UniProtKB/TrEMBL annotation, chains A, B:
<dbReference type="InterPro" id="IPR027443">
    <property type="entry name" value="IPNS-like_sf"/>
</dbReference>
<feature type="domain" description="L-proline 3-hydroxylase C-terminal">
    <location>
        <begin position="187"/>
        <end position="283"/>
    </location>
</feature>
<dbReference type="GO" id="GO:0016706">
    <property type="term" value="F:2-oxoglutarate-dependent dioxygenase activity"/>
</dbReference>
<dbReference type="Pfam" id="PF05118">
    <property type="entry name" value="Asp_Arg_Hydrox"/>
</dbReference>
<protein>
    <submittedName>
        <fullName>L-proline cis-3-hydroxylase</fullName>
    </submittedName>
</protein>
<dbReference type="InterPro" id="IPR037037">
    <property type="entry name" value="Pro_3_hydrox_C_sf"/>
</dbReference>
<dbReference type="InterPro" id="IPR007803">
    <property type="entry name" value="Asp/Arg/Pro-Hydrxlase"/>
</dbReference>
<feature type="domain" description="Aspartyl/asparaginy/proline hydroxylase">
    <location>
        <begin position="19"/>
        <end position="175"/>
    </location>
</feature>
<dbReference type="Pfam" id="PF05373">
    <property type="entry name" value="Pro_3_hydrox_C"/>
</dbReference>
<dbReference type="InterPro" id="IPR008035">
    <property type="entry name" value="Pro_3_hydrox_C"/>
</dbReference>
Length: 290, 290
């Protein structure tokens, strides 16, 4: 795991509550990356490329930093965090992200963009501590605690989940650099930066042959009508068992093959390549059209 | 199947499109019956017990018909359908319902209410023809076509699904009677009533021993972390295979038993009793708290 804690801030619960109330009142819409998730996933852009309040697409910015959207004036506390903690000159996008009863399938980000992958610097400031919410990064599953600022290695195979119905609001601040950089440069306030906070690593059960056999037996159930459901089911396995998130797609391919449906095999391989391989900018994928 | 077509109306697509645009712009919120569904499920009350625009709870009305909500003035065409087609003196609730990429688990309605089950008269006016959307009623799966007015036997074990991402907007009009009635009495305009429209019955595959074995093999995959997902997966089986929707719960119980987790067995039995047995008014159920 390359993801790690960058620092910790004390959250003003009273001011935070007011901002969270605004976020809750913003209508839920279809998301830009809806093919990656199921359940409740709500992203609200605070800073983005265009300044438009409904522009949820991450894209490269060159020359100019991100623009504030109309939501910013309603979340003064979050805006204060963004502008006083981070170096806004490097800001690419800032958005709140909430997951409930939902999983985001294992994927890699930034692969469709122009910069070298190491130039993208994604951070998460966890605003609420939802005990059943986790992130994964390659071989590790972490639980982000409220107030922690994380560097999330979004160029690696990663995923997010909330097994519960509790709100798990996070402030996701994307920065980008040109050339070599020290991660301290992400911050306007260098005193926030610290390397001495131990992460809450989520303990997982061993991934046994028996468990693998159980997963492969999904060939007796999978069909085009539940292909999408099976993908989301498989996407959660690595949160409970110690196995790499990319195995999600190997299982999906294997189960589709065993079920003997070439169209499912083809879709399984395409979604694998789309999510963790190299997709083109703006490429979209349907899990339910055959 | 006791559900059947009551009539058919010609939809004015231009006026309908304006109303649907309003419905699409209404914020999506947490639903009153969210434990019954996953995916996108959006219900907007047009007439209800209180007249409040956010009151989504069905309850018995005695003496007074349902009240219009603030949404009604924005959907003049749907209001015209409600008030000219149906006998509004018997109106209990009218709401639009949309499902996308979603399933509502098999359940029985009205069991927590006061009247005899045969006194409740639920109708659906299908507004859009989404080819992958179906309803089930006991032993039958139907596809409601746009313009059809259906009596849906909601006191029987029934379910709804949309396997696709196409909008499937329906106008659900609930009436109630006291004592014996002729179903023609549901209508203000008796000329709408007809019994000569053949329903589009959805052909299903035979439910084989092999398929049953595949389902029972889910014992190798089920866990508390995916119990909810497995329930929704099982809820879809009867749309593809010719088997009763209530089997959903028998499989869930059996798979939980085979997995050897008493808490899962207990929750499976409770959700079965809650959904298709006798629940108390206002009773709620969590699929993710253990």
């Amino acid at each position: 795991m390359r993801s790690h804690i960058l620092g910790r801030i004390a959250l003003d619960q009273e001011r935070l509550a007011q901002d969270l109330a605004h976020l809750a009142a913003v209508p839920t819409v279809e998301e830009e990356y809806d093919e990656f998730s199921n359940g409740f996933w709500k992203n609200i852009p605070l800073y983005n490329a265009s300044g438009a309040s409904d522009d949820r697409l991450y894209r490269d910015l060159h020359g100019a930093p991100a623009q504030p959207t109309g939501h910013v004036e309603h979340v003064p506390y979050l805006n204060e965090i963004i502008t006083t903690v981070f170096d806004v000159e490097r800001l690419q996008m800032a958005r709140t992200r909430n997951l409930k009863n939902a999983v985001v399938i294992p994927h890699r980000d930034f692969v469709e963009l122009d910069r070298g992958l190491d130039q993208y610097f994604r951070t998460h400031v966890m605003l609420e501590d939802s005990p059943l919410a986790f992130h994964s990064d390659d071989d590790t599953v972490i639980h982000m605690r409220a107030g922690e600022i994380w560097y999330l290695d979004a160029a690696a195979v990663h995923s997010a989940v909330n097994f519960g119905e509790f709100s798990r609001q996070s402030l996701c601040v994307d920065l980008a650099f040109d050339g070599a950089f020290d991660e301290k440069e992400a911050f306007a306030d260098a005193s926030v930066y610290t390397s001495d906070v131990s992460p809450a690593i989520h303990e997982r059960k061993p991934f046994t042959k028996e468990r693998e056999a159980g997963i492969l037996a999904l060939s007796g159930v999978i069909g085009r009508e539940n292909f999408r459901d099976i993908l989301f089911l498989l996407s959660k396995v690595h949160y409970t068992y110690d196995v790499h998130p990319s195995e999600t797609y190997e299982w999906l391919v294997a189960v589709s093959k065993e079920a003997g449906d070439d169209k499912m095999v083809e879709k399984a391989e395409r979604i694998r390549d789309f999510a963790i391989g190299a997709r083109a900018f703006g490429e979209r994928f349907s899990l339910t059209t055959w």
